[in-house]
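name: query_chain
kind: protein
chains: 1
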Amino acid sequence: MLPPLLVAALSLPVHAQGRWKDIGKTSSGNSVYVDPRSVKTVNGIVTARVRVRFEPPVQTPQGAWTTSQHLAMFDCAKSTIAVKESVYYINEKTNKVAERKVNAQPGYGPALKGSLSQVALDYLCKK
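structure:
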């Protein structure tokens, strides 16, 4: 059984836990965040968990996506990214997931200008 204090901490909304650092906005005005504790660099490749809050939510057949989180690798020397995992939330606070994708063999590609990946690449690879 978990201690009551740990249960209370785990039940706090994601933004209230102070886990995410605001790193900018996409070209459409969506806020982009990085989990500073997730940032690791090995052989010039930066791996980090990034998040975007959709303002307004994106309407899909599964429901309205309010946020998404991505575990990605950033090759700063080549300015490319590879996404290992993506999770799209209908309600992140209650952990209601609309879609989860895990790439068994992620491939690197360019970041689209103004996108979440470009904002994260610029932040994580600044010199």
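note: The two ends are 46 Å apart (CA to CA).
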